[in-house]
Amino acid sequence: MDLTPYKNCLALTNSIFIANEEKPYRPCCWFKTYIDAVDADDYRKQLSEMDLEYNCDYCIKQDQGGQYSYRQQFDKPDELILTVSFDNICNLGCITCTPSNSTTLIKEFFVDWPDGVMGKDKKYYTRLQQQAPKKVDFVKTTLANNTFKTIRVDILGGEPLINPAIFEFLDWLSEQSYAKNTMISITTNGTTYSDKILKYLDKFSNVIIQLSIDGINQEYEYLRYGNDFTTLEKVCDEFYKLTETHSNFFIGSHYTLSWMNCLHFAQYYNWAQRRYPKWNIYVSKLDVPEHFSIDLLSVDMKTRVFNKVMTELDTPVNENYERCLFLYKEHMLSTTYDSYDKELLRSGINSLNVFDGRRGNTHQPLVQDFLQFIGYK
Cα(69)–Cα(287) distance, rounded to whole angstroms? Predict the structure, then answer.
């Protein structure tokens, strides 16, 4: 196949994604191979030797299916993009997350289970909490050895707004000569409002808060276990107020689409645009765990879900919400997969049963209407 578009992808030259793994480095979150490296030069050398047909499989399949390809996000030749999970300190136990990204899940998964039950022992996940200093050094070296007109730093978690290491790094970054050409984006779980953000508004070109929200009311509380929806709205309201007073502050939300929430997308969409019309809103498709992915559904199932959701939607109030609908449609209707994997769906339901048993919770109100809609028996 012609790999030219992927060889020319700016993620390979202008982007580094740093994950919560022993081998943390890769160009983007969908690149399959994780790389361990002593410095940025070593990382670039190893990356140049990788098989792109294998590692860029996600974007290749997106392009073949006519979807909005993830590589299109890398469209500025003079911009350096650093996406960093400094460690896995987090106060939530989200259904689709893992101990690699949540210290809450480390405690929950290993409280009664022996080492090795997750494929790795508890010490492996605990060590990820100590990765921040090494990653900070890597980022500083990368920034010192690259020249770009603009820089974007996307900070993921764990949960950044409860992590002192994040603010120490931002304090350092805000004092650098290129700070005014730097955009900061922080992805947060909606549990915490921090007015520490205010001091960075005069330091960086733009500051963005991206809230991870996969539904509303009971659905949110189940999927983002450990927070309540009332708290989420209060946090959103506080950050949203800053858009009225600071022209360089932006807020948005990230909806991760799975079979658990795909039928309820309209409720989330209507809530968001009625309450927060200025949001920059993004929809991505859950890839792993596979047993929660919409790709286990047939195209006919997804089409029927999509058509029902369309009848329940408010009219888009602006181009941000039009784009949100476009992304939802692309993920639901454009796909290279066209088979119903009932066994994989059953595996996902069994996984929810395990969570429910551990937490004294119940997924039935969340998924029962979806299962009935697709005819699951």
Answer: 14
| Closest alpha carbon to 261 in 305, 300, 318, 229 | 305
Are the beta carbons of 74 and 15 closer than 8 angstroms? yes
**61 vs 272: CA distance, rounded Å:** 30
CB distance 374 to 346 below 8 Å: no
69 has pLDDT over 80 = no
How far is residue 70 from each of residues 193, 219, 295, 316, measured CA to CA in Å?
A: 30, 27, 17, 23
**What residue ranges define each of the domains in the chain, with the CATH number in brackets?**
4-374 (3.20.20)
Q: How far is CA 362 from CA 139, 169, 222, 265, 286, in A?
A: 42, 40, 8, 20, 22
Cβ proximity of 184 and 153 under 8 Å? yes
pTM of the model: 0.90
For 226, the token pair is 């450990």
Alpha-carbon Rg for the chain, nearest whole angstrom, is 20
Closest CA to 131 of 96, 98, 89: 89
Cβ–Cβ under 8 Å, residues 72 and 177? no
Cβ pair 159, 62 in contact under 8 A: no
Here the tokens at position 113 are: 């289970």
- Residue-wise pLDDT for 340-376, tens only, equals 999 999 999 999 998 898 888 888 888 899 999 999 9
